[in-house]
Amino acid sequence: MRSIGRTGLYPGGLIWRDHLHRLTTISPVDPLDGSAYSQEVARACGLDLNSRILCFNAEAPSLDNRESLVDDYYLNLLSWSCMNQLAIGLDKSVFVWNADREHVESLVTLKGNLDSVTLVSWADDGASLASDVQVWDVETRTKLRTMSGHAARVGVLAWDKQIVSSGCRDGSIWNHDVRVHNHKVAELSNHTNEVCGLTWRSDGMQLASGANDNIVNIWDARSTALAWCPWQLNLLASGGGTYDKQIHFWNSTSGARVNTLNAGSQVTSIIWAKEYKEFMSSHGYPNNNLSVYSYPSMSKVVDIPAAHDSRVLHSAVSPDGQTVATVANDENLKFWKLFEKQPKDGKGSSKRAKLSLSGSAGSGSGGLLEDDGDCGGDGGTGGGFLHGKSISSLTRIR
Amino acid sequence: MMQQQQRPTNSRNQITLRGSTKIIVEFFEYCINSLLFQRGLYAPEYFKMTKKYGLNMLVTNDPEVKSHMREILKQVEAWLMACKVEKLILAIKSKETMTVLERWQFDIHNTKDQSSTFSTSTKTTNTDSFSRPLAGAGQDTSTTAPSLSSPSKPKPEKTEKEIQTEIQAILRQITASVSFLPMLDEKCTWTILCQTEKDAEVPATWSDADPHLVHNAEQVKLRSFSTNLHKIDALVAYRLNDDL
């Protein structure tokens, strides 16, 4: 007698329930007639000895562990756009609910062993959605870009037009410019613990951040002036904004403020010298000046008033650390030889700096520095390679 | 028995086979969806309501479940077209213990073949005869379509309307069966099994399995429906209360 699998399942015969009510019982046929019996039982049990039972290999999807809201206060999984679309991050997926059409759409589901979605945040235009540090076009459901780099999870994010500020678990806040390749345009480091709240003032001038270290910071958007000291690794200089006008020095290890300098006006950028124990700060209204201070004495070494016609927006230092470039809304890019190396033969003067600005202007659409010549002096060759911009250079003679 | 291997050969029968297959696959799709909803395999928010067979049917809107089901039904359709599938089974299992708790079985009879096997007037098999297999014990003739009468007489083609009405009746009954089925109060998962003929072509995505029978089961025979070529019998087996 052949086995038909699990016999003895139906003691006393098989009960059919007809129409859910009427019961009919089949008695087993004579057990001595082996083959007939097994055939009968097989048929009754719905088994066919000449058949194969096949099973679809893939397991049925389990939706239990999926799409649940991660229970973590420090994540930001809900965001409502100005286009009346609500985005929600559920575990590894982001869903967009269109409140006008009352329609839900799945935007993305992260694949692999990644962490779950930690945040969703709409851009001001309501068309782009950032999740983690990915930017998505919701209309076409395509990923525009990924801006990675944070060492830990990013729990909070805030948009200001093209700038996305992301707060990380390690306490750092990065500003990303979504338009440019090197997206990280600033790092704001003051928090020692996970950044859990981050929001721009509606005019984009200030960014407030709150963190697990129980500190709320207000960052002046115009003072993304932050610079690490090259010779003292844990020393960070941060420039204050229009109201603050201070340059603060932080011990990044202890988090303590070690020094403060009143700069007299908004600090737009800070650059440390490599060669000297000095730093340069650029400023906004009213003087639009550049200043060089020595550290830690905080004495002003050089002041260049009216370095630009409007506030100095950005500054950058050349790779050799000698020349600083500045740019302002006055359409001028200027080069300043602020930290020129002393010649090895010792010919260089160690006296108070004598400044020399050598103007060499490109054919600009205006914005040419009229007072280029005023500072006169020995000729650095600053310009020529940048078209359509005025370029000046200044040499500081030591 | 000699005519058992007879397959629809002429073009008209091919059309019938294709049409019948389509109806059956569609029925399985709605029926499985409906069961997944009713038996709580997935939360209600994964389903949306749609009109079908003159009923409000609940169909999943989850892409993952959808594609899983599409994969299965694609193969069922291929087997139906090859006349190789005998049963389709939806087994509902406990997620934790993997015990089969409930088993929905749909027997697929090729009525052309069966007429040659069971009918007394075997000579009429090349006509559109719809003899009813009398082998199934306890079947209630009143549940099936009125068109199934004397096997010797050629019957008119069953209209789509008639088939839809039968499907509607079976789906109604499945919905009503929730009232006597035991509660599935643990987390469950589901599996689709197919019983095929030995020589059926089996893709790599399918493999041999045990029949997923329910231990200590009570079985309830449900209604049937038939197309011009197939007859589907439904049966549910479920676990009797452990105390009994």
Automatic annotation (TrEMBL), chain A:
InterPro entries: Cdc20/Fizzy, WD40/YVTN_repeat-like_dom_sf, WD40_CDC20-Fz, WD40_repeat_CS, WD40_repeat_dom_sf, WD40_rpt. Transmembrane segments: none annotated. The lineage of its organism: Eukaryota, Fungi, Fungi incertae sedis, Mucoromycota, Mortierellomycotina. It comes from the Eukaryota. Belongs to the WD repeat CDC20/Fizzy family. GO terms for molecular function: anaphase-promoting complex binding; transferase activity; ubiquitin ligase activator activity. Residues 376-386 have a biased composition (Gly residues). Residues 68-336 form the CDC20/Fizzy WD40 domain. One of its GO terms (biological process) is positive regulation of anaphase-promoting complex-dependent catabolic process. GO terms for cellular component: anaphase-promoting complex. Keywords: Cell cycle, Cell division, Mitosis, Repeat, Transferase, WD repeat. Residues 343-398 are annotated as: Disordered. This is Ubiquitin-protein transferase activating protein. WD repeats lie at residues 188-223, 305-338.
Automatic annotation (TrEMBL), chain B:
GO terms for biological process: cell division; mitotic spindle assembly checkpoint signaling. GO terms for cellular component: cytoplasm; kinetochore; nucleoplasm. Its main location: nucleus. Keywords: Cell cycle, Cell division, Mitosis, Nucleus. Signal peptide: none annotated. Residues 18-236 form the HORMA domain. Residues 113-131, 141-152 have a biased composition (Low complexity). The keyword Nucleus applies. Belongs to the MAD2 family. Pfam families: HORMA. It is found in: Nucleus. This is HORMA domain-containing protein. Residues 113-162 are annotated as: Disordered.
